[in-house]
Structure formats: C-alpha cells, structure tokens
Design goal:
Elements lengths: L1 H20 L4 H6 L4 E2 L5 E15 L4 E17 L2 E7 L2 E3 L1
Antiparallel strand pairs: 1-2, 2-3, 3-4, 3-5
C-alpha cells in the first residue's frame, strides 16, 4: 500500500508543474487558495500532502514511526451543479 501511495505521489508531482504553469482561472479563486485550473476542462485541482516521522521510547517499545498523507481535491462545475472529489489516503508504518 505504501509503495502504491509513494508511486502515485511522484506521478502527481510530475504533473503539478504543468498545471501550476497555467494561468489561474477566476473560478478557481472561489474554491480557495492553492487550486489550479486544468486546461481544456472546467476543473480546478489542488494537491497537498503531509509527512510525519517520530521516534518512540518507552519501557516496552522503541522505534520509528511514520505517517504519510496525500490529498487530491478537484472541483468541477457541471450542468447538475458543482462536483467535489476528495481523495486523501493515509499510510502509517
């Protein structure tokens, strides 16, 4: 699972510069900070993430732990109204 999330994150990170280089659409500003316009569509996307690592010391256990979260959020205007898709997988080790 962790390998899948890491590979997906690297693939998404490769797409971010292409999306970020595009000029923002005024519709994306309505959704909040960080949304970028996807060319040739009515979609705005925001990709964010968090990586946390800690070391635990206790009487019964010692060791490193990590937590990774990547959030992909899209907003699209459709004939039926706005559609929001939010995917935020969390991986703990």
């Amino acid at each position: 699972m962790l390998r899948t999330v890491v590979v997906f994150a690297f693939l998404a990170a490769g797409a971010v510069p292409a999306i970020a280089a595009e000029k923002s659409d005024p519709r994306c500003a309505l959704y909040g900070e960080g949304f970028k316009y996807v060319p040739n569509s009515a979609t705005c996307v925001r990709i964010s993430g968090q990586i946390r690592t800690d070391y635990t010391v206790g009487k019964k256990a010692k060791g490193f732990g990590s937590q990774t979260r990547i959030t992909f959020e899209t907003r699209t205007d459709t004939d039926f109204g706005p559609v929001r898709v939010l995917v935020s997988p969390k991986v703990e080790n």
